[in-house]
Request: fold
Amino acid sequence: MSDAPPPADARRPGTPPSAPSRPAEGVAGRVLDWFGVDSDWERVPAGRDAYRRDLMLGAAFMVFAAISVELGRSMGLFDGTRHPLWLIFVFGVVSMVPLAWRRRYPWCRWCSCTGCGWASG
Reply:
């Protein structure tokens, strides 16, 4: 009897049971399957390379934000504002911080977006 093959539903020891597969019933079932509802998925932590790419992307967008503010100033977009020019630059650059720290400090996005919105009034 030891030479008999294992049953079809046998799993390796230590492996979690898979989610029961439900047939795709109509459009709703296909949509739920597409988005992976009830699937056994776990977020893999980002590595150093991902953090470095986020930092470089955030820095590049900070430069683009500063250039955009300067271009807007040259077109006269900020002529009627009561805020000083340096504050407009700070808002433009600080708004890109969440992009640079989005994986390492996810709460930073909320804090900086809320703070910039509150301060600009």
User: Anything to note?
Assistant: The chain is about 55% helix and 0% strand. The helical segments are 26-34, 48-74, 85-94, 97-100, 107-120. The radius of gyration is 25 Å. The CA atoms of residues 60 and 96 lie 9 Å apart.
